[in-house]
TrEMBL record:
It comes from the Eukaryota. NCBIfam families: PPR. Keywords: Repeat. PPR repeats lie at residues 45-75, 76-110, 146-180. GO terms for biological process: RNA modification. One of its GO terms (molecular function) is RNA binding. This is Pentatricopeptide repeat-containing protein. It holds the Pfam family PPR.
């Protein structure tokens, strides 16, 4: 990679290079860049450190990501979002929830990206209790009207088979997307309620949207841009 071969580029180019690295093939280049950054003027830059964090997450190197995060002298909401997101992606859902709580304890305000990633974490819990508490926090933050957050709430309740709660979330949404409709249709169909499945399907067609089950499954595992 050009960034690795030519040393440390400017800050924006460096961040761009780090964002391109992923998977096992990108880990070696990422580590070489990290080693160069340690001896550069941007070693304590929060944006660069956050980009490094994301790189280790995409490369599946959780231990290095956690170690880097602990040694950061400055963090932003984007940094916390990156940590929560990579923890969920790599299967450390308890760590994701702990990071969310620590973020709040340190006075940071949760964003759309924070809530979406944390909702993915609580979706893997044994019970819905954590999800209900998180939903209450979302309402208090006024981000319950955010389309992406609402779709994540729909997915949460659908995973636990709580159709009534999912319907209440849907009814309270100021706007819908094809993902919103698809999650709700899938939710009712998974419960075997074919009458309401068909009714919502017709409502969706009336709204001009087209059902796509792939959107539901993509929404379960998709990564939200950190905000």
């Amino acid at each position: 990679m050009l960034c690795v071969n030519e040393g440390i580029p400017d800050k924006l180019s460096l961040i761009s290079c780090l964002k391109e690295l992923s998977g096992r093939s990108g880990l070696g280049a990422g580590k070489r860049l990290h080693a160069s950054i340690v001896h550069s003027q941007v070693k304590t830059d929060v944006a660069v450190s956050t980009a490094l964090l994301g790189m280790y997450g995409r490369c599946g190197h959780a231990d290095e990501a956690f170690r880097l995060f602990e040694h950061m002298t400055e963090r932003t909401v984007v940094t916390w979002n990156a940590m929560i997101s990579l923890s969920v992606r790599l299967g450390y859902v308890d760590h994701a929830q702990q990071s969310f709580q620590q973020m709040l304890n340190e006075g940071f305000i949760a964003s759309t990206g924070t809530f979406v990633s944390t909702l993915q974490a609580v979706s893997g819990a044994a019970t819905l209790n954590d999800g209900v508490r998180l939903h209450a926090r979302i309402i208090a933050s006024t981000l319950d009207s955010d389309l992406i957050v609402s779709n994540s709430l729909l997915t949460l309740y659908c995973k636990f088979g709580r159709v009534e709660q999912a319907q209440r979330v849907f009814d309270g949404m100021p706007q819908y997307s094809i993902v919103s409709w698809t999650i709700l249709v899938t939710c009712y169909s998974q419960q075997g309620n074919w009458f309401l499945t068909f009714q919502i399907f017709l409502d969706m067609q009336t709204s001009g949207e087209v059902y796509d089950q792939g959107r539901y499954f993509a929404g379960e595992s998709g990564e939200v841009e950190q905000q």
